[in-house]
Design goal:
Shape: globular
Helix content: 25-40%
CATH topology: TIM Barrel
Order of helices and strands: EHHHHEHEHEHEHEHHEHEHH
Keywords: Dipeptidase, Hydrolase, Protease
Protein name: Membrane dipeptidase
GO biological process, one term: proteolysis
InterPro entries: Metal_Hydrolase, Pept_M19
Number of helices: 13
CATH class: Alpha Beta
EC number: 3.4.13.-
CATH architecture: Alpha-Beta Barrel
CATH superfamily: Metal-dependent hydrolases
Strand content: 5-15%
Length: 336
């Protein structure tokens, strides 16, 4: 039995936009998931059929809501980030229009459920590392009106709004605090994935609304600092937020460089969160096209196999919550 999906994070929008981007951008982006010298990669511009982890064909017949992040690189200035965001999202919009018979754009959280219930596919705009807001804080309201439902404040480095684990002592900046206030006013969901522990603590102090970690795992199961501590998970749980399970090997097990993760490793993170009372807080946050993947879940096409493992291990009710119900309920209640 296949279950509907609401996946809270992928980088596919970037991946299919790279081939048409000014080369100056990918020459500066040290972690770009794109090799301009690879002829096959240069042709991967379609959302319908491509060599990426995620495509409409790989989603198959499963009702599927996908959060498509514009991932902004730490090397880009806030001003450059605006141009990059516009290019990536304009390309995604073009692809959605080209395949309007197979996927729709959600402009508000209320748009998501009707498409899932009609067995369709729906795209949700999000931003990873929203440093573009530092160039113009009014963009928060503008992009919310354009359909951006969720944004995170940083990636790995020290940033103008907040910082990741490359700068573990740096907290949310004064401008970052203003952006959080503006996001809450606009009902744009705050995503804390990639924040360092100092910034996470600041978020607890600065927020009045629930927030999410769109693609983060359990640090108790895998000690990577990108993962959430039990205390952090509990804060998200108690505030009514959700956490998306990330498929990145380095976030699944400590020895991933020598032992390839399996479905059992993904289940261990879910199981730990369930033991912490997280039945209504677990979700999916694959990170498709933003990382290498284990062979067990090497593309979106293998999602039914993962769902079958979840159903056998946790039962259908928990699997349904994990795959889409928890995330959908969160967006409907707290999104715009």
């Amino acid at each position: 039995m296949a279950f509907p999906v609401l996946d809270m994070h992928c980088d596919t929008a970037d991946r299919i936009a790279w081939p048409s981007l000014d080369p100056l951008f990918y020459q500066r982006a040290s972690h770009a998931q794109f090799n301009p010298d690879d002829p096959a990669a240069a042709e991967d511009t379609s959302l319908d059929d491509n060599g990426c982890h995620l495509s409409l064909n790989k989603m198959g017949e499963i009702p599927w809501a996908q959060c498509f992040a514009c991932f902004i690189y730490d090397e880009f200035s806030p001003e450059e980030s605006i141009a990059f965001y516009r290019h990536v999202m304009d390309h995604l919009d073009d692809e959605i229009r080209a395949h309007a018979d197979r996927i729709a754009q959600a402009r508000t959280a209320a748009d998501i459920r009707p498409h899932l219930e009609s067995s369709g596919h729906v795209a949700v705009r999000t931003i990873e590392n929203a440093r573009l807001f530092a160039a113009d804080p009014d963009l928060v309201g503008t992009l919310a009106d354009e359909g951006v439902l969720m944004a995170s404040l940083s990636w790995n480095a020290r940033g103008p709004l907040a910082s990741g684990n490359d700068a573990p002592e740096a907290g949310v900046t004064e401008l970052g605090a203003e952006i959080i206030r503006r996001m809450e006013d606009a009902r744009m969901v705050l995503d804390v994935s990639h924040l360092n522990d100092t910034c996470f603590a600041d978020v607890l102090r600065l927020t009045t609304r629930p927030f999410v970690a769109s693609h983060s795992n359990s640090r108790a199961v895998c000690g990577n600092p990108r993962n959430l501590t039990d205390a952090q998970f509990a804060e998200i749980r108690d505030r009514g937020g959700v956490v998306g399970l990330n498929y990145c090997p380095d976030f699944l097990r400590d020895d991933a460089s020598s032992v390839e993760p399996t479905f059992d490793d993904l289940c261990r993170h879910v199981e730990h969160w369930l033991d912490l009372g997280g039945e209504n807080s677990v979700a999916l946050g694959s990170d498709f096209d933003g990382t290498d993947l284990p062979s067990c879940i090497s593309s979106a096409a293998k999602t039914p196999e993962l769902q079958a493992v979840f159903a056998e291990r946790f039962g259908e009710d928990i699997t349904r919550k994990l795959c889409y119900e928890n995330a959908l309920s969160f967006f409907e209640h707290w999104g715009r």
